């Protein structure tokens, strides 16, 4: 099969005008000028751009059913309380949870997202629901074990790293949740298991200033939040330092670790991230919805940190579209190069999830995961700028060389 379009944007190379992509089975066999990539059968998308499928580095598909239920505010812990109240403590039966995950998968594919880094609190339910594709999923089993529930640490790690449901389209990772819900022993044990199983790690970190107050003093809104949940006990030890140095001391930073958010970082934090090769997932519209200070990604990238894009969940975001995220950044940070923006939602995100050798660019031998977006007739000549400044959605998606029927996916 050969796909043609006015432009092919490989991401790891310059855009190809009147380009073509040859697919052989589930792999990209060739990419180049349509004059030289010939054969049958073929499909010409004409005035469109062929891109690698987008990679959503951070989301929570099991929260899809919470879309617009509890609008974000500047008080994050208050939002968490309202979210718990609206969902009866996140209580949802297995069938509802599977339905939420399937909705999230369909919405992701419709937006041209072909790979996600998904956080799951109930892996025994969600993993069987998503392990047959077509969406590629890195499933991070969530671990929460602090204070009065620290005794559950071993069981929760065991559930998080269980590979029973792993397939070609679903791989396993672990997510020790955050510095206010996991203690030092929990981070250390989670990372040790990840290293033994060669698994990626995802941690929510530096999401709010309240988090820093908690790790530095043991007080503030997160201490109150743990009290409200009945989790606080006097065995919780305050690290008496900010989150990044603490995670470093726990051995939780490194090239297999992706930190979700990273909204508040100083020069020392950035130095440690560079030194350890730790990745950052920036979630632009969720970031804006909570009213955070400008994200430091433009300082992180020149320093040598791999930054990528995630959507977070529909509990805090209007869609699961990485293209919508990139367009948001383009509108609000106009000085960011279009080439870099596209990398944030493709190749850099794949690197953060540990799959850049197989996804994230249109490169021979990689999986044939593709998204096709029509060009705006009155838009910029540059194809990337054109799609970033238009409102057109994705018109076709290929995963492993197969076109996705959105009515059945």
How would you summarize this macromolecular structure in one to three sentences?
By secondary structure, the protein is an alpha/beta fold.
Textual characterization of the structure:
With 409 residues, the chain is α/β, with parallel strands linked by helices. The protein folds into two domains: 2-52 and 362-403, Urease, subunit C, domain 1; 54-352, TIM Barrel. It is built from 15 helices and 16 strands. The radius of gyration is 21 Å and the shape is globular. The two termini are 21 Å apart.
Features:
409 residues, alpha/beta, TIM Barrel, 2 domains, 8-stranded mixed sheet, 4-stranded parallel sheet, 33% helix, 22% strand, globular
Give the overall shape.
globular
Assembly classification: single chain
End-to-end C-alpha gap: 21 Å
CATH homologous superfamily (4th level) name of the largest domain:
Metal-dependent hydrolases
Biggest sheet descriptor: 8 strands, mixed
List how many beta strands DSSP finds: 16
How many alpha or pi helices?
15
Strand content: 15-25%
Number of domains: 2
CATH architecture of the largest domain: Alpha-Beta Barrel
Low-confidence stretches: none
Mean pLDDT across every amino acid position:
96
């Amino acid at each position: 099969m050969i796909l043609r379009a006015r432009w092919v944007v490989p991401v790891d190379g310059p855009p190809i005008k009147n380009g073509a992509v040859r697919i052989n089975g589930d792999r990209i066999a060739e990419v180049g000028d349509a004059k030289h990539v010939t054969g049958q059968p073929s499909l010409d998308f004409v005035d469109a751009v062929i891109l690698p499928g987008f990679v959503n580095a951070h989301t929570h598909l099991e929260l899809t059913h919470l879309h617009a239920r509890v609008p974000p505010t500047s008080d994050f812990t208050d939002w968490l309380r309202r979210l718990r109240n609206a969902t009866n403590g996140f209580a949802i039966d297995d069938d509802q949870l599977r339905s939420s995950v399937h909705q999230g998968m369909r919405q992701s594919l419709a937006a041209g997202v072909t790979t996600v880094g998904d956080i799951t609190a109930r892996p025994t339910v969600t993993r069987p629901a998503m392990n047959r594709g077509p969406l590629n999923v890195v499933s991070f089993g969530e671990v929460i074990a602090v204070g009065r529930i620290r005794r559950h640490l071993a069981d929760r790690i065991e559930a998080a790293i269980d590979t029973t449901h792993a397939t070609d389209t679903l791989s396993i990772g672990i997510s020790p949740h955050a510095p206010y819900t996991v203690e030092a022993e929990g981070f250390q044990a989670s990372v040790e298991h990840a290293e033994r199983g060669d698994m990626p790690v995802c941690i929510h970190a530096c999401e709010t200033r309240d988090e820093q107050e908690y790790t530095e003093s043991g007080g503030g809104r997160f201490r109150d939040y743990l009290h409200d949940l009945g989790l606080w006990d006097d065995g919780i030890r305050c690290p008496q330092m900010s989150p990044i140095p603490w995670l470093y001391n726990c051995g939780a930073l490194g090239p297999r670790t992706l930190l979700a958010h990273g909204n508040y970082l100083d020069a020392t934090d950035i130095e440690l991230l560079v030194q350890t090769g730790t990745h950052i997932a920036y979630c632009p519209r969720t970031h804006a919805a909570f009213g955070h200070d400008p994200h430091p990604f433009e300082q992180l990238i020149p320093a040598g940190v791999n930054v990528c894009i995630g959507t977070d969940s529909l509990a805090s975001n209007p869609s699961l579209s990485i293209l919508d995220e990139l367009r948001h950044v383009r509108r609000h940070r106009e000085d960011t190069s279009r080439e870099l923006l596209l990398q944030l939602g493709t190749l850099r995100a794949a690197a953060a999830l540990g799959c850049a050798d197989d996804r994230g660019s249109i490169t021979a031998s990689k999986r044939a995961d593709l998204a096709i977006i029509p060009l705006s007739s009155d838009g910029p000549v540059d194809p990337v700028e054109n799609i970033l400044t238009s409102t057109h959605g994705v018109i076709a998606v290929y995963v492993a060389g197969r076109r996705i029927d959105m009515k059945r996916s």
